[in-house]
Specification:
The complex is a heterodimer of chains A (239) and B (293).
Chain A lengths: L1 H18 L2 E6 L2 E2 L3 E3 L5 E2 L1 H12 L3 E6 L5 H6 L5 E2 L7 H4 L3 E2 L7 E7 L9 E5 L3 H9 L2 E5 L2 H9 L5 E5 H9 L6 E9 L6 E2 L4 H16 L2 H10 L7
Parallel strand pairs in A: 1-5, 1-6, 9-10, 9-11
Antiparallel strand pairs in A: 2-3, 3-4, 7-13, 8-11, 8-12
Chain B lengths: L12 H9 L2 H36 L3 H16 L2 H24 L8 E2 L2 E2 L14 H34 L2 H9 L4 H31 L11 H9 L14 H31 L5 H10 L1
Antiparallel strand pairs in B: 1-2
Helix pairs in contact in B: 2-3, 2-5, 2-8, 3-5, 4-5, 5-7, 6-7, 7-9, 8-9
The chains are: A alpha/beta (239), B mainly alpha (293).
Chain lengths: 239, 293
């Protein structure tokens, strides 16, 4: 009888633990306004707001973890966290190693930014390592200068190391607007990728379905559009 | 931190700076100094213990033990640090989880390796996925201490091995002729005398260890260099305290901080060296004897 009681208690305990499963969200924390570390040391930005809301709708307990962009996919695969939520565009190449949820950010433009209007976008162009923009620059015939963090790609233009930086336009916009005319968009915008999605291990279908359902519900009731407007301005593309 | 910091955008001058330097992020920066100092305080003795063990093993008269010690020294010294910090740690982490998996989930059917993915049962995760962030941080820190200790232990082993061989044979023979057992000779004569030969090499290692602490970030521990880079990078209006690229100032501050750490170490090591050389039959000991006359 005692054993039976003990077994039931154990079962109840483990059952409880399974229900309160924590999902760890991995982000870069250096890509405003998508995700950044705010002045209290907490993850903030568009993805923080959307991620928290998605977890609420999917009824999951979520925990935020920061990880270098370089190793963000390998660390997902080795199980350090369960979801990548780091402004990661959906591409065929990445889909071979991880699987994506439905996009929560519409396909968007990438743009060049330089410190003078006549900058040569076929010259030395900086981009963040392992991004679709870096791939595009390499194929465009320009000399690609890669950096580990997005901030360094802009710093390279400011100090003259690169003629221009190529990145998501939504990331570059605040830097251009707040540079007092030192930085400007040059050349044409380029449409890249299939929007931004959450990254999952390919074996985690159940979790991916939960999040995709939550994204669809946020799209349906307009909360996602509201968040997009709040973080990216009134004229940002919506769903 | 202060009540008047509630609206940073309205502040100017000194008030702004005061609030800026006491923001949550900066407090994280300051505590990361403690993290680094703790790492040094824990790693140095552990690495020394590893080194002592390695040197003793390498000197052993039992062949397999001696091979083991020598292989440890040669292998670890030959592998670049960065490889160690990237691959060894992942392998160690997965090894721990794999072993725990065998114990807690014997009925698990799915393969653990699925292509590039490493999947053990959720109960075998270390630390558990549901445990709070602090445990993940402590686990990362423990892995860091262990990895640093293995790497620096191998170098220390080589230094100590050399130092043990540098103690004059005559000293040991004298001890033996007094009837001391090999164990007593080792403990009473060899070890106390070898430190004077080992100290220069060990102090080198200590200096390198201080400067190697930024490798911590590879292990997911936020160290002072990570924070300096993060805080110094240009901040847009999305942040409470927007500012241009200030990395130069942060890195200058780090330069001074590291110089202070190494300078203090140099002074302390100098004193220790003087104490160890006292009365030794070495050139340094002889110089001290003459100076005292």
């Amino acid at each position: 009888m005692k054993k039976l009681l003990l077994a039931t208690a154990l079962l109840a305990l483990t059952g409880g633990a399974a229900a309160a499963q924590t999902v760890r969200l991995g982000t870069e924390g250096a890509y405003p306004p998508f995700n950044f570390i705010d002045d209290n040391g907490q993850v903030a930005g568009f993805e923080r707001e959307v991620g928290d809301e998605l977890c609420k709708r999917a009824e999951l307990t979520c925990e935020w973890v920061t990880n270098d962009w370089d190793s963000i996919i390998p660390n997902l695969q080795s199980g350090n966290y369960d979801v990548i939520i780091a402004g990661m565009s959906i591409t065929d190449e990445r889909s071979k190693v991880i699987s994506f949820s439905e996009n929560y950010f519409p396909p968007a433009a990438s743009a060049y930014v330089a410190s003078d209007a006549g900058a040569d976008i076929k010259g030395v162009v900086s981009a963040q390592v392992g991004t679709i923009q870096a791939g595009y620059v390499a194929e465009s015939g320009a000399t690609l200068l890669e950096f580990a963090t997005p901030d360094e790609t802009i710093a390279a233009v400011r100090n003259g190391e690169a003629a221009a930086v190529f990145a998501d336009k939504d990331f570059l916009k605040p830097y251009v607007e707040q540079s007092n005319g030192e930085l400007m968009f040059v050349g044409d915008d380029v449409e890249l990728g299939g929007g931004v999605g959450l990254g999952f291990r390919q074996s985690d279908n159940e979790l991916r379905e939960k999040f995709t359902a939550a994204i669809q519900s946020m799209k349906a009731d307009g909360t996602l559009n509201a968040a997009l407007k709040k973080h990216f301005g009134e004229d940002t593309p919506l769903f | 931190m202060f009540s008047f910091c509630a609206d940073p955008k309205a502040l100017e001058g000194f008030g702004w700076l005061l609030c800026y330097l006491t923001s949550g992020k900066h407090l994280g920066f300051y505590t990361s100094f403690l993290t680094v100092l703790t790492l040094l305080a824990v790693t140095a003795p552990t690495a020394l213990a590893f080194g002592f063990g390695g040197a003793m093993a390498a000197r052993s008269h039992i062949a397999p033990v001696s091979w083991l010690g020598k292989i440890y020294i040669v292998m670890v010294r030959g592998v670049p640090d960065i490889v160690f910090f990237m691959f060894f740690v992942i392998a160690l982490d997965q090894g721990i989880e794999w072993m725990k998996h065998q114990v807690v989930c014997p009925d698990w059917k799915e393969p653990i390796r699925q292509g590039l993915e490493f999947r053990v049962c959720p109960q075998a995760k270390v630390p558990l996925g549901s445990s709070s962030q602090i445990w993940h941080q402590l686990y990362g820190f423990a892995l860091a201490v262990f990895t640093f200790s293995i790497v620096f232990g191998a170098f220390a082993a080589n230094v100590l091995y050399g130092a043990m061989n540098a103690v004059p044979r005559a000293q040991l023979e004298t001890a033996e002729s007094y009837g001391m057992t090999p164990r007593q000779v080792f403990r009473r004569i060899l070890v106390p005398q070898m430190w004077t030969y080992a100290l220069p090499g060990l102090s080198n290692l200590w200096m390198i260890l201080i400067k190697a602490t930024p490798l911590l970030f590879l292990l997911g521990v936020k160290d002072i260099v990570y924070w300096a880079r993060e805080l110094g990078s240009a901040k847009t209006q999305a942040y409470a305290y927007p500012h241009p690229d200030w990395r130069l100032w942060y890195f200058l501050f780090l330069l001074v901080a590291y110089l202070c750490m190494t300078r203090v170490s140099e002074i302390l090591l100098g004193r220790l060296s003087a104490r160890l050389n006292h009365g030794q039959a070495t050139a340094a000991g002889e110089a001290m004897r003459r100076a005292a006359q």
